[in-house]
Protein: Ras-GEF domain-containing protein
Organism: Aspergillus tubingensis
Amino acid sequence: MSAYSPSASVPFPGTGQPTYLELFPSGEVPQTFFTYRWWEDEATTVFWAFDPHEIKRVIRFGLFRDSNLPRKSLQKRDPQAITAFLYSLVEPHETAFIDNLSHYQKVEEIIRRCQISGPPLEPWSWLPTKRDSDMPSIAIAEAIDTESHLHFTRISFEELVRYFLGYRAHSVEWFLQQHTALYIHLLNYLQMFPEELGKYKEVEQHLQTRSPFAHRAVNRCLHALRQPVSASTPYPGFQFIAAPIQQLFKEHLPSLKAILLELSVLGVRFTRTYVHAREMNWTKPFSVEIPLLDELDLTNPAPALDFAKTTTALDEEYFSGLSQKSFVEPDAIIKRLLVLWELRSLEVWECCTGLPDMIGYIQEIVEALYTYRNYHSFTAILSGLYKYSTSNPTFTHTDSATNRMTLTPVLPPALACLLDPTENFVAYRQEFQTSPGLPFLFPHIREYQQHGPPALHQLFQQLQRQVPTN
């Protein structure tokens, strides 16, 4: 794969124009090859089929060589269809603005609203100074790593995906250029203050487990000054995230619709994992596994009741080994059930955030799980819906005098109340007593902690009653 790599040759102030080492000749991306870019043909098909949701995702990720493809395709569409498409992208108070636009302007507005605009790019701002001479070397390494992380957060997920597939991406190019700037800043500084070489050899060692881009800059700088340091890692700096993304395009061949659904959710995970993280993990592979999406198969979704039936059968297998001893001394079975519950809740939040048009389907699934008395998966998915509604709130004023607000419910109150934690989920526990099924474990664990073995006897007596699965 060929990817643009910025030159490390940067003009130096003063006399002459010295050249510098090329720090990132490979673009820091694993070399992978596709026989042809099948997704580009699929993108053209999406514009022809004219599904607004799919078109939005195709424009967002821009997986095509001709940047005018969306423009040329949309301009050929019926003006009424373009107007309806644009109406679906705007808020109600913006409709008057739309009515005054020409067909060409509406197309441009659609493209603008579907594209992702990342944060502004900033120049490298950490600079070595003599006043930092007394700082511990690890503190300097942490400061450099923090700066590198900051610049990484300026790259949108969409730009990274494009770059990993061989397209040019300005924000990624800028990111690499800024680490070249670090190399030049440090090279000039150490030439001026060679007594600092010992400290920066220690900094280089600390950076070996931090930003590979910053480490490459410091390591190459010390090599240029003929310092005895080991060679930097041969692995591409973007290995931790590029390899999983590239693999997706090999596994999903040839379904652009499926992969864009997955990428939309992974964009949410990317932000949570890297942008909102206090510290960056530059080596742990980016997780691209989304079991919920695989189970839902949104390219050909099954009826909600069928999904609930399949999920309940699987959950029953997980619960089959559960015993009272699992509560007394938590074993692998109960630990796994609790972890799966939390992961499913988080997956639902990610999916709703990345694909809000699927919320209605998820709500149907929750209601179907309730009919099967699968409180385990029911509450996990409901919890994810609550996370989404809290992070993306639609508030309803209930008391103007006290200025108190409540969230618009994501489900009918009769079901939503089962996740109310008041009095250790009293509404759920009452429901479970009258209509037992696969339990929501957290309240039962608390019951055991508060009341001892009698709470477990009651739980397992209820579990022995038949769970409706048909």
